Amino acid sequence: MKKILKNQNKIKQKDIFYMKKAIKLSKKGEYTTDPNPNVGCVIVKKKKIVGIGWHEKYGTNHAEVNAINMAGKLAKNGTAYVSLEPCNHFGKTPPCCQAIVKSGIKRVVISSMDPNPKVSGKGVKFLKKSGILITTGILKKQSEYINRGFLKRMKTGLPWIQLKLAISIDGRTAMKNGESKWITSNHARKDVHKFRSKSSAIISTSNTILTDNPLLTARYKIKNNDKIKQPIRIIVDSQNRVKPYHNLIKQTEKIWLIRLKKDNETWPNHVQQILIPSYKKKINLIKLFYMLGKKEINTIWIESGSIFFSKILNLGIADEIIFYIATKMLGDTGKPSFITNKITNLKNVPNFRLEKIKRIGPDIKIILKPYIKNQ
Fold this sequence. Notes:
By secondary structure, the protein is α/β, with parallel strands linked by helices.
């Protein structure tokens, strides 16, 4: 019995070792695979890695196929370590499960299952029927975090929502006259561009456009690859205040103007007006986010002023709140960072769990998650 347990432990440790490599490979596609998930694959035979692959770009080969192509004939009787359940349906590319069976791989170790109804459990079932040994759940939490937007959208219909705000150390977002450039340092702004680059979409408001006239593009450079997929820029504009002359409109990347009714302006082809039903004469934000989920938006980076920031926070739909805190004090005449829903006692204040704290140049980055009891 002890010998069996010892052998099982050795197998598990080996599985963890190679799955870590598969998960690390999956991260190579985090700027380019959207709306697909990030997946990595490692093929091992006789304690040697004979093939590696990751999903490099939406519409191209999946990780398993790239790893099999590298391994060639050496894949036969090998073990494949995959960070997400292989697909068994035709999409932009042929089914990965069929490629695995054809390659002669005898065992597949899977980190997390795919909740996509087209895949969920079907890949594993097909592989088992084909005589392939299956192990699941190795480093599940790590692989799920990488694809948190895709997985949440598949399970709930909502994207993963990241809410960002730059503030002074005394909690102000701007001077009384509206001056806010720049509260935080260049280091913090570069970090913001990294977040933007990983997102499916950036959401802001017409108020931000009128105040700052920003581009809202992602200007983060990947090593050995200057081209990243630009997130869709989504502007909540219930009063149709954004016009064709604003800076972001002059760019060629896709823009969605979220409105209650269309205007009569002449817009370039990359700009689309999308109508959302109203709630108390304002855009219904819950319906907006569900609509974005249906449009395969996995992750949303919200970058706006304190008013919209507060609306999202009060709705309780943000998955992560990212504060960039500058070591500056704007004083009591500065604009506050958060407007509450008339909270009158301490037990009803918003409660968060500290996820991460990091120094960014002279500034501090804090990532919070909503506090959930028993979590």
